[in-house]
Amino acid sequence: MDIKVLGTGCANCRNTIALIDQVATSKGVVVSLEKVEELRDIMAYGVMSTPGVVIDGQVVHAGGVPSRQKVEQWFVAAP
Amino acid sequence: MSTAVQSLQRWPSRQPVAFLILATMVWLALYQTLNPVAESLVAALPVDRASHLGGALHFFFYDTPKVLMLLTGVVFVMGMVNSYFTPERTRALLAGRTEGVANVMAASLGIVTPFCSCSAVPLFIGFVQAGVPLGVTFSFLISAPMVNEVALTLLFGMFGWKIALLYLGLGLSMAIVAGWIIGRLKMEGWLEDWVREMPRASAGFEEAGMTLGERIQGGFQSVREIVGKVWPYILVGIAVGAGIHSYVPQDFMAGFMGKEAWWSVPLAVIIGVPLYSNAAGVIPIVQALLAKGAALGTVLAFMMSVIALSLPELIILRKVLKMRLIATFVAVVAGGILLVGFVFNAVF
Predict the structure, then answer these.
(1) Would you say domain A2-77 falls under CATH 3.40.30.10?
(2) Which of A26, B1, B52, B325 is geometrically suited to a Cys-Cys bond with B190, CB 3.0 to 4.6 A?
């Protein structure tokens, strides 16, 4: 899975990355986690509130740290 | 055991209405017991209730749970309300409106739209991109961090409803007027070029369709995030207040931050701008200053400049605004804060 976290580098963005990494590891899912910090690129996804999460090119979350359940669902839904 | 805990955790989602009614009743009942509990706590300690220390202890034991309970309640309710006002929906409400009314709407929506200062710039671009007028966007950007439920609850809990209402009224008026002025100045040309060249986005939004149970979960999450973060500031604020209440002589600050010292208002703003803190962080200082006879206008000016104008936010804004627009923004907002300070000191 290709996961991008959109955010200008605030604490919430770092927490989001840590959470996704943690859940992915515990589920044994291999992911490529990438931070998108350049404003222009963030805006290109049409996200207005950061942190946002993009999985395989699809915005799945925006505005705040996602809940653990939500993150777990992303990995369940994936094949 | 673990299944029992799990089913208890899911209960608010399964029976949201019953949960809300019960939670309200428990909250009210607890709130009623705060003063008796504080009295008996002080009585249980080997100090005289009438002494300075007794007074300070009672103040601390009563005010700490009171303010924390108020904050938890308000943050929970606002967490639920916030779920109705996503930034996307707010943008759709504001897009294409004419200025004036839209400034008022933007400032009011700033109170209920969830907002984190690190989101300020994406939000700003998103608004402008969807055709929300620049001045209206600024009304939102000024009101959102300054007039929020945490600031209002803390002001209410510590200083009473009059000061909280004043702060609400002034914060809103300032956001409306400052945004309107910036709109009148027609400064669209001072956005960075890449922002102006971005393709226009439509302002439509997708209805997420949350259930009441999910909104309750949103309320819980806000409480975890916000109350979990600000409680140490509140504790310090109340401890400072308790100490000052009983020990430091009244009017200690009056000489250099009282009404007579007109220069204290601009000084408060100059000190306040480089400082960066959320509403909860300034409350201890505000508490200390007010209790010692500093003038209300001066203290409010200080609080507003710390929250509304911050150096880190300006540095990020520089990526999308050219210098002249940033300077205008700072000048208009700082001017508004000065005005608020002077008017208050003159009236009260």
Answers:
(1) yes
(2) B325
| CA-based end-to-end distance of chain B | 59
* E strand intervals along chain A: 2-6, 32-36, 52-55, 58-62
Read off the pLDDT of residues B276-308 as tens digits, 9 standing for 90 and up: 666 677 777 787 777 777 888 888 888 888 888
Look at strands A52-55 and A2-6 and give their pairing: antiparallel
How many beta-carbon contacts under 8 Å exist across A and B?
60
Structure tokens at B75: 């943050």
Cβ–Cβ gap B125/A39 under 8 Å: yes
Angle between helix B228-246 and B279-291 (nearest 10): 10
For chain B, state the CA radius of gyration. 22
Q: Which of A12, A39, A47 sits opposite B116 (nearest CB)?
A: A12
Mutate to test the interface with A, among B85, B119, B223, B229 (most CBs of A within 10 A): B119
pLDDT at position A15 over 80? yes
Spatial distance between the Cα atoms of B319 and B302, rounded to a whole number of angstroms = 27
Average pLDDT over every residue of B194-215: 68
CB B182 within 8 A of CB B137: no
How much is the pLDDT for B254?
A: 58
Q: Do B223 and B29 touch, CB atoms closer than 8 A?
A: no
Confidence of residue B175 (pLDDT cuts 50, 70, 90): very high
pLDDT at B172: 92
Closest chain A CA to residue B83 = A63
